[in-house]
Each structure stands twice: as structure tokens, then as C-alpha cells.
Write a structure and sequence with these properties.
- The structure is a single chain.
- Helices cover 8% and strands 42% of the residues.
- It is mainly beta.
- Strands 6-8-9-10-11-12-13-14 form an eight-stranded antiparallel barrel. It has a five-stranded mixed β-barrel with strand order 1-2-3-5-4.
- A hairpin with a 2-residue loop joins β6 and β7.
- The longest helix is centred in the first third of the chain and has 9 residues.
- The radius of gyration is 22 Å and the shape is elongated.
């Protein structure tokens, strides 16, 4: 398999490189790693992560996937944690783009070494991947962030108060701790708006904000109080929809 050399996978992960695999998509309804790819000629398999991109594809299709390889230690299957993999270190791919080379009914019987390349169909990007295969904001925004500045109603928050303020952003939530208070928002992005829009919801209240995500810098501006209008600019002013302004830097792994 492209991944039968564990060291090469670790190297690829450390360089954050995009790698490619071609093989047969396997799907199991109960396995922890529901999607995996086989057919490398050496009996190995590679776990695939990226449900949104993989679920439209029929099992048994020969596919070409591109993404970032990594390795993890897996404890093996159990009644609570069904898995096709034994207790071992395994190779996985965080899938970014997929294209179908052959659907099951047209797929040749097994891969043939040295066979000519198959004309590729259009990639099947997930909802968080742009049309050119580049990661979209819903995927890029996920991770751990450090707050480097904060303003509320035009007043800058003292640096000592935000010195250790971290945000953890998942696919659906933003969580942070300020003092003894832990706050969790659910959020929704709309990167088609100008400026890009973010809805921050806590309980029955939703703040209509805007965001900018450039490389490892994230800016979010949103109104406080019962305002039905969306922020319009990355600034902080009293009695304005541009009320709270947060600037964050991504934490490096």
C-alpha cells in the first residue's frame, strides 16, 4: 500500500503534505472506522476520515482520494468499539478530495499494476471543501485558538485578563473559559456573505456576527444584547452592532 511504510506516513503528516491513494472503498455499518480503502496488492487497508465526502460513494467503487496521512495507536475491537483493525498502530487519511474511478458494476476485477490511468470524474467535495479541493472555512476554523486581543463597546480588555484565554472550536461548537465561567456556543458560518457571517447561539439567544479567517488569524465581531442586526465592520463601538471584537491566533500542534 502507499501506506505500508509507517515512517513515510509519519513524515507526510509532519510536513503536512497532501498524499494520494487509489483502491476499493469499503464501508461497514458498525465499525468505528466506517470507511476504509483496500486493494493495494499487499493485503493492507487504510482508514478514511471525512464522512461528508465519502458517504455519497457506493461501496466497492474504485476511488482516488487525496488528503493528509497520519498514524495512531488503536486498542483493537471490542463489543463497545467495533473495528476492522486489530490492536496495532494504523495508518489513516483525513480525506480532502475524492473522485470515483470506477463504480462497482464497471470496476475491473482487482487492481492491475502498470495499468493505464483511468479518466477521472469530477471530485466530490464535501460541504466544507471549496470547489477547487481547497479546505473551506468550516474545516479550517476548527482547532485550538489563543485570544490575543478583545474589545467590548470600544474598551480594550486588559492583556492580563486574556493572557490564558483559549477557544476550542469543533465542527459545531465554540467553547472557552473566562475566570470560573465556561461558555459554549453553537455556531453557523456563511462564507458566501461579504463580510463572512457567523451566527453564535447560546441558549435561546443568537448573536449575528461577522468573521475573517486569514491563515492562522481569526477575527470575530458580534453585537451584545437583543439586537436583530448583524455586525458590519471589524471594530468595537458602544451602542453599535459592532460591539465585541475578538482577535485570535491558531495554536500550533
Amino acid at each position: 500500500m502507499v501506506g505500508d511504510n509507517e515512517a513515510s506516513a509519519k513524515d507526510a503528516e509532519s510536513r503536512n503534505e497532501v498524499s494520494a491513494l487509489e483502491g476499493i472503498l469499503k464501508i461497514h455499518p458498525k465499525y468505528l472506522f466506517k470507511y476504509y480503502i483496500t486493494g493495494f496488492g499487499n493485503g493492507q487497508a487504510c482508514a478514511l476520515f471525512g464522512k461528508e465526502k465519502l458517504e455519497p460513494i457506493e461501496a466497492g467503487s474504485r476511488i482516488h482520494v487525496e488528503g493528509r496521512l497520519g498514524t495512531r495507536f488503536h486498542e483493537g475491537g471490542s463489543e463497545q468499539n467495533l473495528s476492522p483493525f486489530p490492536r496495532t498502530s494504523y495508518i489513516f487519511m483525513e480525506v480532502e478530495t475524492v473522485r470515483v474511478l470506477h463504480p462497482p458494476e464497471d470496476r475491473p476485477d482487482g487492481p492491475t499494476k502498470g495499468s493505464p490511468p483511468v479518466p477521472a470524474e469530477k471530485p466530490l467535495p464535501g460541504p466544507d471543501v471549496a470547489k477547487d479541493g481547497v479546505k473551506g472555512d468550516p474545516e479550517k476554523i476548527q482547532g485550538r485558538w489563543t485570544v490575543i486581543s478583545a474589545e467590548d463597546s470600544g474598551h480594550k480588555t486588559p492583556d492580563e485578563l486574556i493572557q490564558n484565554l483559549k477557544w476550542v472550536i469543533t465542527k459545531d461548537t465554540i467553547t472557552y473559559k473566562f475566570g470560573d465561567t465556561i461558555t459554549e456556543w453553537t455556531y453557523k458560518l456563511d462564507q458566501t456573505k461579504k463580510p463572512k457571517a457567523i451566527d453564535l447561539t447560546e441558549g435561546d439567544r443568537t448573536a449575528l456576527g461577522i468573521y475573517s479567517l486569514e491563515g492562522d488569524t481569526l477575527m470575530i465581531c458580534f453585537p451584545e444584547g437583543a439586537k436583530d442586526e448583524r455586525s458590519t465592520a471589524f471594530e468595537s463601538k458602544a451602542n453599535s452592532v459592532n460591539d465585541v471584537l475578538i482577535v485570535l491566533k491558531r495554536e500550533k500542534p
